[in-house]
Design a protein that fits this description.
Length: 533
Amino acid sequence: MEHRSNPVLDADWPDPDVIRVGGDYWMIASSFNRAPGLPVLRSSNLVDWEHVTNALPALVPLEHYALPRRGSGVWAPSIREHDGTFYIVYPDPDHGIFVIDAPHPAGPWSAPRLLLAGHGLIDPCPLWDDEGRAHLVHGWARSRAGIKNRLSLLEVTPDLTAPLSASEVLIDGAEIPGMLTLEGPKAYVHDGWYWIYAPAGGVADGYQVVFRSRDLRGPYEHRVALEQDDTPVNGPHQGALVDDEQGCWWFVHFQDRDVFGRVTHVQPVRFDAEGWPHMGEPVDATRGRPVALVPEVGAVGGSGPATGYTEPRRSDDFTSRELAPRWHWQANPRADRWRTGDGRLDLAFAPSPRADLRQLGDVLGQQLPGQPSSWEVELHLPAAPPRRDAAPERAGIVVLGLSYAWAGLVRDGDGITLVHGTMPQDAADETIHRARLFTADPTAEASIRLHLTCDQAGRIALGASPGRTTPAGRPAGAAPPQWLLTGWQSTKGRWIGAEVGLFAAAGSMVDHVLDDRRASFGPVTVHCEGSDI
């Protein structure tokens, strides 16, 4: 039998939570400022995942998230089922804890409702006891609340619509020698015990702790169950305990890979005679370390042996009238800013007076794969009537993080030009390099094929080749890319990895949607480690 290598999802799926429904596993993840948010993925074997939907079409409050609120939005969520209803409980550290519900993990999901208002409330997880009473365990973000390293508990209504008690400290990490940044709790009840699985020590350097008590309110005893040891898997950070139909148990967690974000691993779990879980491969009598290969993948969900790495589909031919779930914006989307179908994506030139793509909500992106990848997309600027304002318009492909680099076309008073630009992390202004003048006529049309590659270290190359058609509409011959930028080191974003995005922006406050000025992008083709995805 072949085994699947960890990570099973080598891209940015932060803070995963997983449940099993029959023979299917459903995973959700943090989405932060991205919209739509709360991605929902399905698998039959815990290693091959399909991105089915996004449970949150837009972040609330709507007007607040009309701008990219980087580092805010949806933090670590949880998904649970109770009495036939599925619930996602998610925190917004600047507003409080929200709940959405659905009859099935694939949706449709309700509009979000605020369960508990407050600043710095994070990582909530509901738990229903044997008497049907519901409780919520959560953590704290010091950046908003001024406290951290503790887990708290409150009672809520069984339908998760209102709190029934104040939040009280359940476990204080400061009272446990050596424990720092205790967070991310996931609560379970089985075998007569209340269990809380929670990471400590920080995202990049932490470890998994398991707590248990006969009483939900404690006191709790604990063990470190999973740590990096001498493996390359740093963290390992928060995740979910889930069983399969054969009675085997698994722990799904993330590892921080910097520019590639928080990638997903699966660990086997066994329970000893005293009921304590043992994760991964043993380090000693209690602790485990992450495994490089997921064992007996074919037994999980009964799907047969797995053979190599797969990703949820990234390429897009833009034939659908709706965007595929894999795409997201940097802020709440406006329906009048985009349209798709007929093999192309049209993006309106969004106002961008500061010319900083980190502040542009209308960047349509995907997570950067954790394995070497290449991207191709056709960009077309249609012919345009003369304009009253002289503000430049630009469109292209970008790798976006705390810094960014992009390549594309600029239309201004000098005509249409192929350019690339870079923005260092701490800079306020872009550096623009003009590669080639297409035409001195700013009203003409222009087509270009854009190329982007990323290596195993996150170094980026940007290039261009002739478009598929000439201005006269005749097919263009294939040509190798002209590389405009090579060896540029991408950087992560705020709590997320870097992203590959498409954009169209105008350097003024004029809203060009009114006269329907748009840039068109042809099919996006993505190759990852030799596979079309």
